[in-house]
């Protein structure tokens, strides 16, 4: 799902990101979430245009080979009426998917986006070769690929624009930046910057370095040279990690020269310690906050662990990070395959390993290995540079707690189904985007009516998130002969629908934001969408609040105790559970391309 800098001949398969949740896995859906990154190449191989396309046909579902068997097994115990309805629903979904054709999911900045491609565009032809209903994505990808420097002509349809459109894009090696956004938060005169880092490929250190330099320059210009960057928020939420060396590069930009960043130890693996050999480019007086969540893993945990153990910044989030403290190597195997195996564990500067899962031989169903979470009683205590307590065996725990908003069942259903994208397509046909665009009450009512029409036509099931478990229970009751319970089950489904319908009002603000993002995604590049979203992001605002409060920042890092020589070295800093107030301030954005 997280595409890095890619230089490969074969296409990268990825699933499109849905806010907070992954799409449900079904044989035939209204929209396929399977996407192809086109194309991927090395400098000496073929390249092509850089679009993410979604094939809305059955050919795009690359699930396990035994899916058909699963469907047959699922049929046992189902009534003939239920089975027939299931087949009709699948056929209807398939027909609609074929009608949608092959569409653009994303067009990257600096590449296809700059040449005019937009999400939602339906690809009709490549260099004059017309795409027929049911054409595999494989064929389209092969047509888009070609020699570096050559051009490809793409013919497409766009909602709201009459007739066919054509765009010519030069083929090139596509490099996806790790730094998705670098911008100032709030008033630029306050000097607080924000960097979103999505991965750790080979250029991550260079990109973060350039971003920090740019933010420092903006802060100096905004204050007429009186001050540089006063605070920095480094967003590592959802960052799955990457290269260990890149994690060291990024950490070296933030920690004092000579500081230990990470060490690795393993059986038959020579112990190695990585230290910072350069002065940090982030001024020691610049307050640092690192945003993390449960999906912050591996190399991202090396950075957050070093920042925490060396007390150079505050870790902000809702709990702990993922807890992957393993070092792995990759060895090539025949038939374009590879083996990834663990060679060591890594340790943060305090000496702790944040690996949350233990593996041992035997004990699993297949007898190969046993996996178990590190028990709380087995977690050892370590101390940061300033004497704060930290523990191993479960990721990096936050210093300042700000809960992330949770999506409602209705919001999850709307995001998974693709109904928001469908509505955005219809909206674009009759509206033009204005500078003061917002989802007002009328637009929200239009969206509700659109959704309910889809429900009435059978194209959308609002209770789909619960439908699987309910159908399983229904089949179990039928097999057991408990027919009297069928009515109660029908009543339960009806009650669920009523409750979810009420959520349109209860979670109005969240759904409005989703609708706005769905519409704006057809006009704005990814960086501007991210910039827009962080203005109301509760965790970003929570980090911003900490950076604006010098006393609280020092207290969280036990700096007051170190200065006054008061308190013991075993001082424990408790995370704050205060509700973060809404901060409505304009942002000063800078466009960063590397």
Give structural attributes.
594 residues, alpha+beta, disordered C terminus, seven-stranded mixed beta sheet, globular, 25 strands, four-stranded antiparallel beta sheet, single chain
Question: How does this structure look, described?
Answer:
This protein is α+β, with helices and mostly antiparallel strands and 594 residues long. The chain contains 16 helices and 25 strands. The two termini are 22 Å apart.
CA-based shape: globular
What is the count of DSSP helices, taking H or I runs of 4+ residues? 16
By DSSP, the count of extended strands is 25
Radius of gyration: 26 Å
Low-confidence stretches: 1-47, 55-76, 563-594
**Distance from first to last alpha carbon:** 22 Å
Describe the sheet with the most strands: 7 strands, mixed
Label the structural class: alpha+beta
Strand order of the largest sheet: 24-17-16-13-12-11-25
Strand content: 15-25%
User: How much helicity do the residues have?
Assistant: 25-40%
**Mean of the pLDDT scores?**
81
